[in-house]
Amino acid sequence: MHIVRTRTELRELVTRWHAGGDTIGVVPTMGSLHDGHLALVRALDGKATRRIVSVFVNPIQFNNAEDFSLYPRGLEADAALLEQTGRVDVLYAPGEGEMYPPGFSTRVLVQGLDKVLCGADRPGHFDGVATVVTKLLLQTGADIAAFGEKDYQQLGIIHRLVADLNLPVTILPVPTVRDADGLALSSRNRRLSPAARQQAAILPATLKTCLAAMKAGQTVAASLEQCRTTLRQAGFDVHYLELRHEDTLLPATQAGPGTRLFVAASLDGIRLIDNMPVT
Fold it and tell me: Which residues bind (R)-pantoate (predicted)?
């Protein structure tokens, strides 16, 4: 596995691979890798002959400077983990100046999907996500790119930008990977204290309870309010808990196929997100 830090070196590799008939699979990440990221790498089995994992903590998607500074980092550990898989050809780890050189002034905006849920909660966040993902897809020459369903709103935005910009890449959704207690794997989980980490399992359990109440005939509004109360009583600061249509992210008043429950809640100041489909 090569560690590449510049666009020039990456482009030379990508050009050679494409000339040789290779297909390139990409997993964009912000590092601090875990089994959820490795599931994205494995999802490319049989779909790409070359694989690139990028590690870049993207400053323009953070609207909180402290959150950016505290985001977990560990490139050496990430490289060792990827090397062990035997599946990754390149770890692309550009510096901030490589991604955003002096004078950089462009943003990619995906209007509509970016204004609800996490978009309303974190203004400008998805502009930063859309910009860096567009750059990474172009820089890596990706034929296929894997993204996790844990960040479902992000996944929808990426589908939209790829379609709207006619980017020649297939987006591969990968189901959320969870710990034994149900908590969705996230790099942010590492910032939780042992007590908070144990408490965090209440989040997915509450989503399941909420879905069960809806399926049992309780109204969506009553189910959501009951579960918001449960989370608040457990010590969570609830940013949102909503039932939305999967394709448009518009609010849903009835639980059924094509709808999904979305939540963002903070525990000890650490923001956690999750979602579950109505099945």
Answer: 61, 154
